[in-house]
Design a protein that fits this description.
transferase; binds pyridoxal-5'-phosphate; D-amino Acid Aminotransferase, Chain A, domain 2; 18 strands; L-leucine-2-oxoglutarate transaminase activity; six-stranded mixed barrel; 2 domains; single chain; about 350 residues; D-amino Acid Aminotransferase, Chain A, domain 1
């Protein structure tokens, strides 16, 4: 391992949006003959990239996103790193890339957090967002899988995306474009899944919305995801209101946050259900006040209440009174407390350093 020039860094006070990078990165290379090299911690720096690199042309690139939080006792903890490691294995497998062992994934994450935790201020709404990714490094324009790969891990300081005092977001329904389709790659985190969503994201923003509602590719009927987050609905009101999310059909990303919310909701006394949710049912159930809340969730966005659906075909509707609802706020608080070691952690999801 290379020595570290600046192991202590100044806290980043203004995290901005995904650009407040920390000082280091970790790099490992893989070849067919030697497997993985040991992880190297080094200052974050540009990569020399040959323009004929396979990863650039054919998208043989997979990634993950996980967070490290500073707990109330001052120690750092990665949230569910083993689940992220396993999903990364599924993503790389889908693109004919080598497997990074779970323990190596976690070891590199520990290494980077130890080196760069000084960048994280004591603002409890900030966290370290870790971005592990694997790229195909062979230089060839033949349409074939690479034989050499690089694993990289970098991080940025993330602010809180959602302020409970702020309004809920609006979402825009994409009827023309789809994000994922049966047999495709919607259930893994690969680079090629995201640029094709950018035009719809632009349409959503032009319509005054923050996110896209993705429908299923076959019937164009069922809600799958909200932008790059998983979708939730709340049916009914009060302490026994039901928490519902679209079932994993193979075309939506099995979010670690989605799974965490399902568990937390049950623990707080809310029945949960995973099922197919049609756009029409969502609309009808909001109009007769059966569905009272909706929210999006993911590692980056944590939990974002949705107040309005803008549907260019069927017309717009409000969810509840259009403001963040009590179940979303309660689940958001529980999730943040779990991240910070305040809430009990019977599943051992917090990986304390
Ligand atoms: C990453 C991601 C999510 C959220 O997954 P988490 O594991 O909760 O971060 C949801 N949908 C898509 C498309 C994603 O890329």
């Amino acid at each position: 391992m290379t020595s570290v020039a600046h192991s202590r860094s100044e806290p980043i006070r203004d995290p901005g949006h995904g650009e407040a990078f920390t000082g280091h990165m970790i790099s490992m290379d893989w070849t067919e003959t030697d497997g993985w090299t040991p992880p190297q911690l080094m200052p974050l720096a540009p990569l020399p990239v040959h323009p004929g690199t396979i990863g650039l042309h054919y998208g043989q690139v997979a990634y993950e996103g996980l967070k490290a939080h500073r707990r109330s006792d001052g120690r750092m903890a990665l949230f569910r790193p083993r689940d992220h490691a396993r999903r990364f294995q599924r993503s790389t497998h889908r693109l004919a890339m080598p497997t990074l062992p779970e323990d190596a994934f976690i070891e590199t994450a520990e290494l980077l957090v130890a080196a760069d935790q000084g960048s994280l201020s004591d603002d409890p709404s900030h966290s370290l967002y870790l971005r592990p990714f694997m790229i195909a490094t062979d230089v060839s324009l033949m349409l074939r899988p690479s034989r050499g790969f690089r694993f990289l891990l970098m991080a940025f300081v993330a602010g809180s995306f959602f302020d409970p005092d702020v309004e809920a977001v609006s979402v825009w329904v994409s009827h023309d474009r789809v994000r994922a389709f049966p047999g495709g790659t919607g259930d893994v985190k690969i680079a090629g899944n995201y640029a094709p969503t950018f035009p719809a994201q632009r349409q959503a923003i032009a319509a005054g919305c923050q996110q896209t509602v993705w429908l299923d590719a076959v019937e164009r009927k069922y809600v799958e995801e909200l932008g790059g987050s998983n979708a939730f609905l709340v049916r009914g009101r009060g302490p026994r209101a039901e928490v519902v999310t679209p079932e994993l059909t193979g075309t939506l990303l099995p979010g670690v946050t989605r799974d965490t919310i399902l568990t937390l909701a049950e623990r707080l006394g809310h029945p949960t259900r995973t099922t197919r949710v049609s756009l029409e049912q969502w609309r009808a159930d909001c109009l007769d006040d059966t569905v009272t809340e909706a929210f999006a969730c993911g590692t980056a966005a944590v939990l974002t209440p949705v107040g309005k659906v803008v549907d260019p075909v069927g017309g717009d509707w409000l969810i509840g009174d259009g403001r963040p609802g009590p179940v979303a706020l309660k689940l958001h608080r529980a999730l943040v407390e779990l991240h910070h070691g305040v809430l009990e952690d019977p599943e051992d999801w917090c990986h304390v350093l």
